[in-house]
């Protein structure tokens, strides 16, 4: 049972890390859009910058 919990925890940690990575990547891509487009989709440039990005400007 402990072995199963170890692998479950490892998988959960892997998934969480990938979700953060994807979020940063998407935020970086969204930051390339103009402010009006961001606003029409419910985002602000400041909010996206606060959440981090994976793109280098």
Secondary-structure map:
Blueprint: H1 2-30, H2 35-40, H3 45-50
Can you walk me through this structure?
- This is Aminoglycoside phosphotransferase.
- The longest helix is centred in the N-terminal third of the chain and has 29 residues, at 2-30.
- It is built from 3 helices and no strands.
- The protein has 57 residues and is mainly alpha-helical.
Give the helix/strand class. mainly alpha
The helical percent reads: over 70%
Number of strands: 0
Q: Please report which band the strand proportion falls in: under 5%, 5-15%, 15-25%, 25-35%, 35-45% or over 45%.
A: under 5%
By DSSP (H or I, 4+ residues per run), the number of helices equals: 3
Q: How many separate structural domains?
A: 1
Low-confidence stretches: none
H and E string:
HHH
Report Rg. 16 Å
Mean pLDDT: 90
Organism: Nitratireductor thuwali
Protein name: Aminoglycoside phosphotransferase
Features:
57 residues, mainly alpha, 3 helices, 72% helix
Gist?
The protein is mostly helical. The protein contains three helices and no strands.
């Amino acid at each position: 049972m402990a072995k199963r919990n170890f692998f479950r925890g490892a998988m959960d940690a892997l998934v969480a890390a990938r979700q953060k990575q994807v979020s940063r990547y998407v935020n970086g891509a969204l930051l390339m859009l103009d402010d009006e487009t961001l606003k029409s989709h419910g985002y602000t440039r400041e909010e996206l910058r606060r959440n981090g990005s994976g793109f280098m400007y």
